[in-house]
Specification:
By secondary structure, the protein is an alpha/beta fold. It contains 12 helices and 9 strands. α1 packs across α12, α5 packs across α6 and α5 packs across α12. Bound molecules: phosphoric acid mono(formamide)ester and norvaline.
């Protein structure tokens, strides 16, 4: 079995295996409905337990469909209904029970430490469904979407991130290192990646460039990525932070500096960082991006349960 906590800890060989399984499975489902099960029903009899300590729409729905399409089932636990959240049961005991009742555990959490603790005591795989420091299922799925739309390896494309240095960007940075693609980051100086992330970049062969000017970061981009300026775990003065990002808005003008055919991606939910006329334009592939979460997470589940060749 394999955990899926951070992209940086997974080999490029395994990441590629996941993407190629997702491509095949997606192709083979052309005429199937949402709840139809893949022909080989590889996770028949398996239970995915999910828990969300933070809000979620896409991750919740896409994991639900993912396990169902593989022939298994899912149960979503509410953290406020567990003894764990009241401090009257340990992570260790909770993890042991989860391991006896389920086959995989997907956790969206407000604490990276909790993910680590769970992984120590679980004898089933844990999947990080977003933590304060990363969002690996989102970004692996986004690599899939980019390659699906652009029809070439992501290593041949210029990727640009315009926005905050948050969990989604951290996973994009890991992906840039793993998949060897060029990544421009455009953000105000005050909101650059933190020291730990900068050291991680420095200590790995990379093609990552940070600009404090949105235009310079967007120049020549094949893909513009963005995300909300205020993340769920952000404890900041929201108005002030939004103000600091004023010059980093994704609008038609900014898109005009990118390469012809550039696409816009956003993990959603969105905020004022992107103009409506970009978000709803032909260049924006955000709905396709969201649906692809199902396809890639199916292959992530198979990877976790040791079912990928
Ligand atoms: N992109 C994403 O993870 O969406 P949710 O927060 O709705 O799950
Ligand atoms: N960075 C955002 C991603 C939401 C899917 C957050 O953490 O709120």
């Amino acid at each position: 079995m394999n955990h899926f906590i951070n992209l940086k800890d997974i080999s490029i060989g395994d990441l590629r295996k996941i993407l190629s399984d997702a491509t095949n499975r997606k192709k083979n489902r052309k005429n199937l409905d949402n709840l139809d099960i893949d022909k080989d029903s590889p996770l028949r009899g398996k239970l995915l337990i999910q828990m969300f300590e933070e809000s979620s729409l896409r991750t919740r729905l896409s994991f639900y469909l993912a396990i169902k399409q593989l022939g298994g089932s899912t149960l979503t636990l509410r953290p406020d209904e567990l003894h764990l959240s009241k401090g009257s049961e340990s992570i260790e005991d909770t993890a042991k029970i989860l391991s006896n009742f389920g086959n995989a555990f997907m956790l969206r959490t407000d604490s990276d430490k909790k993910l680590e603790e769970f992984s120590k005591y679980l004898s089933i795989p844990i999947i990080n469904g977003l933590s304060p420091s990363s969002h690996p299922t989102q970004i692996l799925s986004d690599v899939f979407t980019v390659e699906e739309i652009k029809k070439k390896p992501i290593s041949k494309l210029n990727i640009t991130w315009i926005g905050d240095s948050n969990n989604v960007l951290n996973s994009l940075i890991s992906a840039s290192i793993k998949f060897s693609f060029k990544l421009n980051i455009g953000c105000p100086k005050k909101y650059q990646p933190n020291k730990k992330i900068l050291n991680f970049i420095k200590n790995n062969e990379n093609q990552i460039f940070i600009y404090n000017d949105a235009k310079l970061a967007a120049k020549g981009a094949d893909v513009i990525f963005s995300d909300k300026v205020i993340s769920m775990n952000d404890r900041v003065n929201k108005k002030r932070k939004l103000n600091h990002f004023k010059k980093f808005k994704i609008n038609k003008k900014l898109m005009s500096f990118t390469k012809k055919g550039c696409i816009f991606l956003h993990c959603l939910p969105r905020g004022p960082e992107v103009d409506e006329n970009v978000f709803l334009s032909k260049q924006s592939k955000v709905w396709q991006q969201a649906v692809n979460r199902v396809h890639v997470q199916k292959s992530i589940l198979l990877y976790c349960l040791g079912k990928l060749g």
